[in-house]
Amino acid sequence: MKFARTTGQLDMAEALRALLDSSGGAAVARSWADGDQEPWRRVWDRLGEMGLCGVAVPHRHGGLELDSVELALCLEELGYAGLPGPCLESIAVVPALLADTDAEQDWLPALAAGRAVATAAFTEHVPRALDADAAAVLFRCDGDSAAVARRPDGAPERSIDPTRRLWKLDSGGTTIAGARVAAAFDVGVLGCAAQSLGVARRLLDTSVRYVGERHQFGRPVGGFQAVKHHVANVALKIEFARPLLYGACLSLDSGAEHAPRDVSAAKLAAAEAAHFASRTALQVHGAIGYTAENDLQLWLTKATALRSAWGTAAWHRRRVADALADGCTAPIGS
Amino acid sequence: MDLSFTADDIAFRDEVRTWLRENVPAEPLPSLETERGFAAHREWERTLHAAGLSVVSWPVEFGGRNASLVRWLLFEEEYYAAGAPGRVGQNGIFLLAPTMFEHGTPEQQRRLLPRMASGEDVWAQAWSEPEAGSDLAGIRSRARRVPGGWRLSGQKTWSSRAAFADRAFGLFRSDPDAQRHRGLTYYLFPLDAEGVTVRPIGRLDGKPAFAEIFLDEVFVPDADVLGEVGAGWRVAMSTAGSERGLSLRSPGRFLAAARRLVESWNARGGDPAVRDRVVDAWIGAQAYRLATFETVTKVLDGASIGPEASLNKVFWSELDINLHETALELLGPEAELAADSPAAPDGGIWADGYLFSLAGPIYAGTNEIQRNVIAERVLGLPREPR
Ligand SMILES: Cc1cc2nc3c(=O)[nH]c(=O)nc-3n(C[C@H](O)[C@H](O)[C@H](O)COP(=O)(O)OP(=O)(O)OC[C@H]3O[C@@H](n4cnc5c(N)ncnc54)[C@H](O)[C@@H]3O)c2cc1C
User: Fold this and answer.
1) What's phi and psi for B142, nearest 5 deg?
2) Is residue B368 annotated as a catalytic residue, yes or no?
3) Alpha carbons B373 and B382: distance in angstroms, whole number
4) Which of A139, B67, B103, B314 has its CB 3.0 to 4.6 Å from that of B227, i.e. a possible disulfide?
């Protein structure tokens, strides 16, 4: 029993954080939102060089072939950095979808190297593909079948998060035999939870810094107890969402029967943490937080977008409830 | 990162499970907050001790098994899952003992710990005073130096189970000229000593074991000063860490309550009206378990638990209320039946547990105080005026 991230894992997160910090941060997100993909591509190339785009890709396709814990750790950092783009889809979902199919050779080497990005839609819970215009390949999953989808025409829907462009994909296209739709969906749920947790942590850090600097009544506003308790509550949500995320990683990696239940629990807790963190961050920033100029909006709106992506809270609660009603009460992570 | 246990850990868990299955009383004992229940629970502590299971994490020489923290957690999970009686010795075992391992003299440890382990001495915590609750550094009860020891005088209050306990540990002002956190000393004293008067105070749930303690020139020998004279605050913070952290409230009891909640919900046809609350409470208990394993891993790797214990305290106290409120909602009109009413559903466990859970955000340092600690000492925000 060693239920904590290892030094190696923490070092990996730190290296990724440093790279993302030095890559332009919020400016990358803003340019992406404006339709200029170049700055983002430069970051992606560097991630590819580091091997991070292939964290979940098998060695034989040039990936690092690491476990869900590392995958979650990376996605958490991407959420923390507010990096836009179909990161979750390329790094986590598509590798899981294509695992051991005839199509994996076609795409995984390019994805692992960061030379290509991919995106995917799942009819029920991810009805539109994120950033299809930027992807080299699009997948459309319907029920338990998956197909390579045609590039959509027309214009995307705009998300509440200005960095997300959402594209409806037509049915049809080449079916991928043996694609693991259900497993890929659960990896997407897990990754979305990880990203949400990163977003929550970023909102907390930003809030703590701001209330320590902003003065009213001759004191930093962070010295007022009402404000302190708001941010303490955010820390609480994060502190007790994180273990659920990493517990779900263990369930997923061991192939436990209750892994879907556990990724749902992680998603619920992480999305709630991010939502709560966003509400609180806005409140403690006051009006400045309500402006498009302030970078807070990038994480604030992402928290909202991720909350309904990859299954709503209501759907995930029902999934956990159904498992519990079936007598599936084994501990999370076992 | 892994959550698997060694074969030895599992063998230990199985031994505990088997013993509990064979020994946990079939009929629940009367409440340990009553005189009769207190005696019955003390007897149970003796039985546990005879099986070598009262203090599994302590060194063997004091009656323990030197069990690792992981095994202790497994023990706790089994203990509550088996519906075993509440621990009447908890103040001593979970609060005072860790402090005594850290600050006690070898003589104190030899003299006091074995009696605590066997239930011969049940301890009460004598910290709060009528004028000093959250502001513990504002205590006024005094200790006056006399040859060979000290004389304690003053009034303590809200002391859990002090009405029936044998001994108490408390903070007193030993230097009348020193302010606040300075000049305090931590003393151990018998509740039947000359000059001690204990007056029970009925609790919200009607149970009489809560008490206030009046001290009038009570003699305490030097041998019963815990830690250094004047260093009482530091010693007390070690106890408080245990109270807020994982020592007092290991996940076992919340896991057991969550499992019972899911069972009650299933038994009532999976009532959709409370489904979401049941799910959230169950997930909360799981989160607490996993977070505890994370803390234990860090402790085993050499870290010590600091102000993060306050995160723990707020979480478990709110989780406990959630679990019980959800259960009451599930029980519908039956929910108002008092625990000892013959028709009380599920043996009254929810009614009893609910009233007890309500105290969680107050004792062990109120949740407002814990949120201050989180904001200031975990997140680094400016400190409150004090
Ligand atoms: C069931 C139960 C068992 C207990 N057992 C014991 C025991 O065994 N031994 C013992 O010594 N004590 C015990 N206590 C006492 C407990 O530790 C105190 O009740 C607690 O520390 C709060 O003190 P108080 O009740 O005086 O409340 P107060 O300190 O008077 O607080 C009243 C309210 O004001 C708030 N408040 C106070 N100061 C601040 C601040 N700075 N910022 C924000 N809010 C503030 C509090 O949070 C609370 O909401 C027990 C209490 C209960 C309910």
Assistant:
1) -115, 160
2) no
3) 11
4) B103
Q: In what order do the strands lie in the sheet with A118-122?
A: A118-122, A137-142, A145-148, A174-175
3-state secondary structure of B219: strand
Instruction: Compute CA distances A102 → A56, A108, A113, A177, A179, whole Å.
Output: 18, 11, 19, 8, 9
Q: Tell me: the pLDDT tens digits for B319-331? A: 999 999 999 999 9
* Closest CA relative to residue B83, chosen from B141, B43, B44, B125: B44
What span, in angstroms and rounded, lies between the C-alpha atoms of A119 and A84?
Answer: 13
- Angle, helices B252-267 vs A313-325, to 10°: value is 80
Q: What is the overall mean pLDDT for chain B? A: 95
Q: So what's the pLDDT on residue A251?
A: 98
pLDDT at B124: 98
With residue B196 as reference, give the H or E element that holds it: strand B196-200
The reported pTM is 0.96
Q: How many Å apart are CA A135 and CA A117, to the nearest integer? A: 5
Which long-range contacts link A147-154 to residues 24+ away (Cβ below 8 Å)? A147/A171, A147/A172, A147/A173, A147/A174, A147/A175, A147/A176, A148/A103, A148/A173, A148/A174, A148/A176, A149/A121, A149/A173
Closest C-alpha to A267, from A281, A247, A283: A247
- Contact between B252 and B81 under an 8 Å Cβ cutoff? The reply is yes
Q: Note the residue count of chain A.
A: 334
Six-digit token string for A277: 């963190």
What is the pLDDT at residue B193? 98
- In the predicted model, is pLDDT for residue B28 greater than 80? yes
Q: Minimal Cα–Cα distance from A87 to chain B, Å?
A: 24
pLDDT on residue B243 = 80
Q: Helix, strand, or coil here: B76? A: helix
Q: Do B357 and B321 form a contact (C-beta atoms < 8 A)?
A: yes
Does the pLDDT of residue B385 top 80, yes or no? no
Residue-wise pLDDT tens digits, B245-264: 777 899 999 999 999 999 99
User: What is the rounded CA–CA span in Å between residue A144 and residue A178?
Assistant: 9
Number of H helices, E strands in chain B: 12, 8
Within 10 angstroms of residue A19's Cβ, the number of other Cβ atoms is 17
Residue in B32, B93, B134 to alter for ligand 1 test, most ligand atoms within 8 A of Cβ: B134
Q: How far is A37 from chain B (nearest CA, A)?
A: 36
Q: What are phi and psi of B279, to 5 degrees?
A: -60, -50
The C-alpha atoms of residue A93 and residue B35 are separated, in whole angstroms, by 61
Angle (CA) B70 B71 B73, round 5° = 65
The position carrying tokens 């007092």 is B248
Interface of B with A in 253-312 (CB under 8 A): 255, 259, 262, 265-266, 270, 275-276, 278-280, 282-284, 286-291, 293-294, 296-298, 300-301, 308, 311
Mean of pLDDT values over B214-218: 98
DSSP symbol at A291: S
3-class DSSP state of B304: coil
Is pLDDT of B145 > 80? yes
Tell me how crowded residue B48 is: count the other CB atoms within 10 A of its CB.
Answer: 24
